[in-house]
Design goal:
The complex is a heterodimer of chains A (329) and B (407).
Chain A lengths: L2 E5 H15 L3 E5 L19 H5 L3 E3 L4 H13 L3 E6 L9 H8 L2 H4 L9 E6 L14 H4 L5 E3 L4 H13 L4 E6 L6 E5 L11 E4 L4 E5 L2 H15 L4 E5 L2 E3 L3 H11 L2 E8 L4 H13 L8 E5 L8 H7 L3 H13 L1
Parallel strand pairs in A: 2-3, 2-4, 4-5, 5-7, 6-7, 10-11, 10-13, 13-14
Antiparallel strand pairs in A: 1-8, 6-12, 9-11
Helix pairs in contact in A: 1-7, 3-4, 8-12, 9-10
Chain B lengths: L2 E4 L9 E7 L6 E2 L4 E6 L4 E5 L4 E6 L6 E3 L3 E6 L23 H4 L4 H9 L6 E2 L1 H10 L3 H8 L3 E2 L1 H15 L19 H14 L3 E9 L1 H18 L5 H14 L6 E3 L4 E3 L5 E3 L1 E3 L2 E3 L2 E2 L7 H16 L13 E4 L19 E5 L3 E7 L2 E15 L5 H16 L2 H4 L1
Parallel strand pairs in B: 9-10, 14-18, 18-19
Antiparallel strand pairs in B: 1-8, 2-4, 2-7, 3-6, 4-5, 6-8, 11-21, 12-13, 14-17, 15-16, 19-21, 20-21
Helix pairs in contact in B: 3-5, 8-9, 8-10
The chains are: A alpha/beta (329), B alpha+beta (407).
Amino acid sequence: MTTREITFRDALNEALREEMAREEGVFIIGEDIYGGPGGYQGAFKVTKGLAEDFEDRLLDTPMIEQTIVGAAVGAAMTGSRPVAEIMFEDFITLAMDLLVNTAAKTHYMTAGQYSVPIVVRAACGAVGVGPQHSQTWTSWFMHIPGLYVVLPSTPYDAKGLLKTAIRDDNPVLFLEHKKLYNVKGSVPEDEYEIPLGQARVLCPGDDVTVVAIGYMAGLATQVAGTLRDQGLSVEVIDPRSLAPLDLETIFQSVRKTHKVVVVAEDCKTAGPTAEIAALVSEACFEFLDAPIGRVGARDAPIAHNVGMSEYILPDAADIHEAVQSVIAW
Amino acid sequence: MATQVILPKLTYEMEEGRIAEWLCEEGNAVAAGQALFVVETDKASVEVHAEETGTLLKVLVPIDATVLVGAAVAWIGAPGDTIPEAEALHPPKEQEAVSSPQDITAASPQDMTVTSRDPEAVVVASPVAKRLARELGIDLDDVQKHVGQKRIREGDVRAYADARSTAMDTDGPEADGDAEFELIKPTPLQRAMASHLSQAAAIPQAAAACEVNLTSLELSRNELLADWEASHGFRLSLTHMLALLVAHALESCPTLNATWTDEGIRLYRTINLGVAMASDRGLVVPVVRGANQRSLAELAGEIVRLQRATMGNRLRPQDLEGGTFTITNVGMLGITLSIPLVNPPQSGILAIGAKRDQLVLKDGQPVTIPVTLITVSFDHRVVDGVAAAAFLQRLKELMEDPRPVLG
């Protein structure tokens, strides 16, 4: 299969283009996404150039997240496959009721007469843009039955998972970390999909398992490389989707290594690391040789100030330290 | 008023003891001086005698439980005396001690609570370490002792299992892997023996052997045997005679009756001969003091007393202390050659092999003579090869012409 190096952003753009070409019901709705002449083409340029081919399928809206998601839900119930873009995940709270009470439940409340096949794309992660534009929220949505939560960490996964998410009949929250948009990776020329709920082993190892979510998966892989030079074999697993969650891959790894660290950029308190650690402890208790390590953001609003922001957010050094302390327990 | 019976400190090093047997039952009358129970220490099984006259009101520690020196093990008093419940009792040392139903009455509920809450007493182990230990039949206490740290992880259990299976590799086909086996917890005596043998193996030692013609010795024994049993009350054995001959041979070989110390070599003025004996609890080496000063009858009588005490698990600690040289008659087990480990702090040990017939030429004619192999292992820091050879030569002379010594 021929591959080329493209950015995470371009991989997403390709996925959108291919799915819009494949099915007429796929359209995009959001703020400043229009990519035609004079258009802004999206805050992170993910929709760049799409207007040239699909001019009437890019709907710009005012700054009104509730309407973006609400219109998408309605369109989905009447046969379309909308992709809603929330510029910053921080503002998804404005659309919370539509996501949680309508999108996630309609299929069940109507006994399957209606489905809500929407994808809500949202940019997450901190890049020095302050408390209201930096957050990564996953556990809120993992907590809602009926909602899928997907976080790719590579261009390859971004393209494959977005295509699958668009084709899936369940509502999907698709989180894109801002620091990943410019990251390049190898992506096949040919069309492909990646099933939801299938974790990926980014780096095989025997001594300790690191389950790292989203942007943290790349950092964990770097840490694994450093530790390998010190003689420690670290297995890095990127779950890729938190709902559905591929527990079997995680459990198999823990049953092999007997030590595990869970890493996410969300706050540690009641974050996804708490849930995964609990699941591992329930299923693999007798295989654990050390307490489960967790790495997450401190319980503080993410500061504008770069030094403070770095202090609050987890980084490679934190992952390194957590792995060492699990090993040294 | 009822009095506590306390586990006494029977030897200088004694810290704990296992109750091997109760010789009285609850409700029985006991007299001061009467044997009350048998305790097994790291050295021996010892009878402990009652200090009071009265009734054995209550047994606090069941058989097989291990308790610390100074722990209350029973109450003696007048019939009907009440035992002060509130008074602090020393709880049994090990958890196993509270496993049998009778035990639940042994410690008051308060004691048991205190025991279970004591964080120092809990082995901290990871879940996988616990599971692995369970699967391998390993006691986490043993792992803790092996690794010398409070917290036990999977690697610690594996390291202990490896060390143990290396130690048991000679034990046959079932020693490794998923093999199932029965785990026998060593008694204090076995533990003491194991540590003693490890010290023994650390001594730089060598061995030498020579063959001895037993014709004269057998002849002497046959002569003595005739009315020995009638006059002494036991049968004279070759071991008894050899013990005396070895004691006499040692008189001219002082470095074999010695101890290496950092300050210098101690040459002992008396010859205290250890005689290795098998017991149902393992090997023991009781000691005959001043062996070379005794007549054959005295020495043999003392060995017989020690043998009987060994069989009945009634050896006293002092029976086992102070040996300066050891003999072991492996010939009784049909062994031709044994190279024993020097028994520290001694510098020599002699093994006597099984008697066998050897064809030799005498005046050009083939005849059979009884022979045996005697082997001395020695601390090479104290004894050199020449001294060892001189000792063997001297002993050979005495064995081949024993009359001057045996009288």
